[in-house]
Amino acid sequence: MDNNRHDRIRAVQWQGDHLRLLDQRRLPSEESWIACREADQVTTAIRDLAVRGAPAIGIAAAWAVALAALREEPLAPALSRLRAARPTAVNLMWALDRMQRHIDAGANPAALLREAQAIQDEDLAANRRMGELGASLIAPGSGVLTHCNTGSLATAGFGTALGVIRAGTAAGRIDRVYAGETRPWQQGARLTMWELMQDGIAAQLIADSAAAHLMKSGVVQWVIVGADRIAANGDTANKIGTYQLAIAAKYHGVKFMVVAPSSTVDMATGTGEEIEIELRDSAELLGTGGVRTVVEGAQAWNPVFDIAPAELIDVIVTERGVIERPNSIAMQAMFGC
Amino acid sequence: MDNNRHDRIRAVQWQGDHLRLLDQRRLPSEESWIACREADQVTTAIRDLAVRGAPAIGIAAAWAVALAALREEPLAPALSRLRAARPTAVNLMWALDRMQRHIDAGANPAALLREAQAIQDEDLAANRRMGELGASLIAPGSGVLTHCNTGSLATAGFGTALGVIRAGTAAGRIDRVYAGETRPWQQGARLTMWELMQDGIAAQLIADSAAAHLMKSGVVQWVIVGADRIAANGDTANKIGTYQLAIAAKYHGVKFMVVAPSSTVDMATGTGEEIEIELRDSAELLGTGGVRTVVEGAQAWNPVFDIAPAELIDVIVTERGVIERPNSIAMQAMFGC
Lengths: 337, 337
Description:
The structure is a homodimer. By secondary structure, chain A is α/β, with parallel strands linked by helices. Helices cover 38% and strands 18% of the residues of chain A. The longest helix of chain A is centred in the middle third of the chain and has 27 residues, at 109-135.
């Protein structure tokens, strides 16, 4: 498979003495980079969504810890601020826990830099593996719908759900790609469409609310999404709108695939009911691109994740393997201690 | 019921010698009016969405015919251009057919003006009646979710689905209102939130893709929407996203109500499969407020209506009465010739 043709973007780049982040808030109109020379600059970039996507957040945070060590900043408060930057993505906690274990074992800055590099390299390798595993499930000539951005921009590279789409396209299994715009931040519209165009994969944008009508028209056989946290029973937290897609997919007999590295699996969380859903500022819904679109004084409810219950998920793909019809037993068998 | 407290907006106003239309493209930032002194100005306003909402389109078109007669314009081409302005809304065809019958019977301009006024007055009366009928089905203390704008802006006044919400709020049956933003035109965000604030009804805006998560949280008992066309079996064409809401409502045991005047019922259309779905310019998805948000060269699929099948609809409310669990037999009994 010539995957490289479809994989040219790297949004999180270590530059020897600082971290370089592609500012995803400015895409697609501008390719602007943020040079982070202190851990708190990374914290700010995570909180303000300059870097987003659960795996990319974890990788950036790992580099931030190494950066703090290199600069001889106090590590405990730096980690604590990083941990608080985004509550839902478990990869952030996973990466920070992993760095913390090395700190506890007395790792020097060079060792922490090696660990951050390892986290990044492993993520890329996991994505390529998931791409193969996921693509192998898709019948040739299929159409797929994805949500949010789960690509190179959201990971070390290649992507999770978008990695399956890259691999499936390269293998000739996928020949139609649809992307939901993903209100309110428009990650699908702004980022996924940009990324797919950069990498030469033809795609069509749809309004999020057009997904069921698209499924009814028969042109998509799979919905493929990423995850921000997967509970021990397979319930999956992901970008708001994922739940609605899972319900509509079930109604139409369209298959539903979740693609995420095993670092996204949180066996300490029993079910989706226990997952904290991040509520963000209503201002994100009340205007677009800095322009107020809703009457002054209006209120909005802005949850940015929801939970697709395991019973609506046909398959969870991680780098460790594929779980069909996920439930607690199958999850325990693959991810239990 | 003190409905007047919640009903102060009139978007289509005959001014004795011209038609005054509230330009809905400029709301909520600006209350700007278009003075139409020729029928083709109304045609343009309908095509370009300055006036929108199936009943309001029909009323504006009726006034346009009267205006053409008053100005001694040739009537046949004016009607033909009006008819082509929007394909999905059956009310447009219904109103034009009604005006055509009067033209065929030799009506003079004064008689055509009276007929347009009658169409407008009957729509307002129908909306008040539907408001009562619909509200009576809602248990006190309920929460509701609506989509698009179906209010005074979309009708002669009071509204269809929003009329039920007005009446239900006045009667103390509804105490929580949620409105989906309704991409891509944002009628929910721009128009419904504005209209509800004008009329003193508290509401919260949600992203369209947050609807299923909202239903799961248990705060809404009804989804209440309007219609652009109702087929002879009860299948309902309405704003894109309606179908997805109907599927999610069924999944959660939330009731689904369609509210529309009988002029929206098209007994000549057997099922939803026969209804033409308007596809609009992909540019509507590729930018917001004139600002390009998606990479140059990207493609989009932009259907602006979809079909909620009758089996997902709990009740259809028209001014003639309520049909529970709609099907061909019940529809024929109420709307058959």
